From TrEMBL:
PANTHER family: ALANINE RACEMASE, LYSINE RACEMASE. Keywords: Isomerase, Pyridoxal phosphate. This is Alanine/ornithine racemase family PLP-dependent enzyme. Its cofactor is pyridoxal 5'-phosphate. SUPFAM superfamilies: PLP-binding barrel. Residues 8-222 form the Alanine racemase N-terminal domain. The lineage of its organism: Bacteria, Pseudomonadati, Pseudomonadota, Alphaproteobacteria, Hyphomicrobiales.
Length: 371
């Protein structure tokens, strides 16, 4: 089989999505399955829908178009503010988009008018992580201007946390989002039907008994694909953490010194991580590099350490075992490594499984976070 490759188990992704959809439904929260990490692959999108997600969300309109071309008719949400240069494509293929800029909304309105379609929008509120969002004090005036735009329908409010500065969802910022919704209704007579509280980073808050308030939607990607929450990268009880694995092939295996020698200058990528201790080690090189994945996001098999990577090579300390040239090494990934590997044209994608529900292996529940 081709290497490097991602082995993607659709059965385990179906299980993860089903468990999360069912658990959140008990709290009155719907799930938007986020498809951006796998470039809108129709195979995974269909599995998410079969598991019960109510809509699909992606940050790239090209991924949404890919799913449409594959015959997927589900509700699609563009979860990054549209580029003005792409508003015609957005209105044609996405049912809803998240927004923070009036100029973009005006362009969406004009595009929707041109094809006689109403485009739904979700306004994003800034609650401290300092990525996208309208400041809470500006929401009321902003909504009044949006209400004047033809062919634009305001569906509610949303927010995004943890992605830039790691600000965690908690009772305080989720209460502020609920308060903004109540203020919106009181000041503008807008009945917000969607209150999207965030992403997979919200799961700890909810599962630990957080006060839900008006939050009725989450946008989940990492927790479905990797079975982990993003704040501490801990495994979520009952979910598979190995639904996706990265497999690479050994192209060199030799006994080498653990320490480099010679005059040291800058390397191509940061500094090397030498093995612990001194003496010789069993060193292996894999035919995969930083052009294909994030080596810091690879969780190596027991007894193996990822030492470093260049653009095309990943160097391992294989401990007591000397690997064979041609041997395959399998890694679990964090979100950064998965995102890079899915994007790389040099990493093949191998989908396995149908949609059968598998029993999770208890040993997978509490695996340590990827390095």
């Amino acid at each position: 089989m081709n290497t490097p490759r991602l082995d993607i188990n659709l059965d385990k992704i179906f299980h993860n999505a089903s468990v999360l959809v069912k658990r959140l439904k008990e709290d009155g929260i719907s799930v938007t399955g986020v498809t951006k990490a796998f470039l809108g692959a129709p195979q995974i999108a269909r599995i998410m829908l079969k598991a019960g997600v109510t809509s699909l969300g992606d940050s790239r309109i090209s991924n949404i178009e890919r799913m449409r071309h594959a015959g997927i008719l589900a509700r699609m949400v563009l979860i990054r503010s549209p580029m003005i240069s792409q508003v015609d494509r957005v209105v044609a293929s996405a049912d809803m988009s998240v927004n923070t800029e009036l100029d973009v909304l005006c362009a969406l309105s004009a595009a929707a008018l041109r094809i006689g379609k109403v485009h739904d929008v979700l306004l994003m509120v800034e609650l401290g992580d300092l990525r996208e969002g309208i400041m809470p004090s500006d929401i009321s005036d902003f909504v009044q201007q949006v209400a004047l735009l033809p062919n634009i329908k305001l569906m509610g409010l949303g927010t995004n946390l943890a992605c830039r500065n790691g600000i965690s969802p908690d009772n305080e910022n989720m209460t502020k989002l609920s308060a903004a919704v109540r203020q919106l209704y009181a000041a503008n007579s807008v009945n917000a039907t969607i209150v999207s509280g965030g992403n997979s980073s919200n799961l700890n808050w909810i599962f630990d008994g957080g006060k839900i308030g008006k939050i009725n939607n989450l946008r989940l990607g990492e927790s479905i694909l990797l079975g982990r929450e993003p704040l501490q990268r801990k495994a979520i009880l009952g979910l598979f953490t190995d639904a996706t694995k990265l497999v690479a092939e050994v192209i060199e295996s030799k006994i080498k010194p653990s320490k480099a020698w010679g005059t040291i200058a800058q390397s191509a990528f940061k500094g090397a991580r030498n093995s612990v201790g001194s003496g010789n080690i069993n060193q292996a090189i894999l035919a995969i590099g930083r052009q294909d994945t994030d080596p810091e996001g690879l969780q190596a098999p027991k007894g193996v350490i990822v030492l470093d990577a260049s653009s095309d090579h990943t160097i391992l300390d294989t401990g007591k075992n000397k690997l064979r040239v041609g041997e395959e090494v399998s890694f679990q990934l964090n979100y950064s490594a998965l995102l890079s590997a899915m994007t790389s044209p040099y990493v093949s994608k191998n989908f396995t499984g149908s949609s059968a529900i598998l029993r999770p292996n208890p040993d997978l529940h509490f695996l340590p976070a990827a390095a």
